[in-house]
Design a protein that fits this description.
Elements (H helix, E strand, L loop, with lengths): L4 H10 L3 H13 L3 H13 L7 H13 L3 H13 L7 H12 L4 H13 L7 H13 L3 H13 L7 H12 L14 H11 L7 H13 L8 H7 L6 H9 L4 H13 L14
Helix pairs in contact: 1-2, 2-3, 3-4, 4-5, 5-6, 6-7, 7-8, 8-9, 9-10, 10-11, 11-12, 12-14, 12-15
Length: 279
Amino acid sequence: MTAGPLEDAVATARRGDYPTALRLFRQLADQGNSYAQHSLGAMYAKGVGVPQDYAEAMKWLRLAADKGLAVAQNDMGIMYRQGWGVARDGAEAVNWFRRAADQDFMPAQNNLGDIYAMGSGVPRDYSEAVKWFRLAAEQDSPYAQNILGITYEHGFFVPQSDADAVAWYRRAANKVYDSSPLTLMHGPQYNLAAMYASGRGVSKDNVQAYMWFTLAAKLGDIKSPDAPGVVLFGAPKETALEQRARVAALMTSAEITEGERLAREWSPHPVVFIRPQAK
């Protein structure tokens, strides 16, 4: 099958030939292709192949967003939330996130959940935050699934349920995603390990706890959450390695070996992403 002009432009960008990709995207963007307009806007927003230029990024993102492209609408929300290329405007950020989220665009659902949880641009509304996180979690977002696990573990605006917490933690923990921005909470591998270590919602199992704490550390959960996370979300201060050491002190050498083997042989489930269609 012969690739079309848009596919050629995407493939060129993936190869790192940004000058050619920029030219191809611009040709398509000038013809009104919303996906190319978004790609061009993203290149200017990130400074990929061109000097970073938020004003130029906003120009192209807005064209794609006005056509209804969800990923562009979500990026418009980010631009307004951060004040990049426009005056920071929380209400306008919510407007754009909601337009994308109403199209079932999972990252926008997560962004709305964050905004309602933190009260940024809208009155803080935990029930509304849980609503959007649940929609994202049902689309297999590990970030949202981890937050739902925390919500059920602590009974934050849902009936407290250790079993439901473990179920959501497990769904999230069996995937890999970038946890580096998560300064307010631990990742799902850590949280699942803690449930095994304490026997909450699942039979107490030090081998499983050791395995998941090992994976948490391997996947970057190696620092204590920020103080607000400890207060707001009940996040433990201990790192994954500190927690693993506590569990290891209760285990035999054979059990530790088994936990290490399980961690070594673990393989993640794929994270599902929704690719928006060009219009």
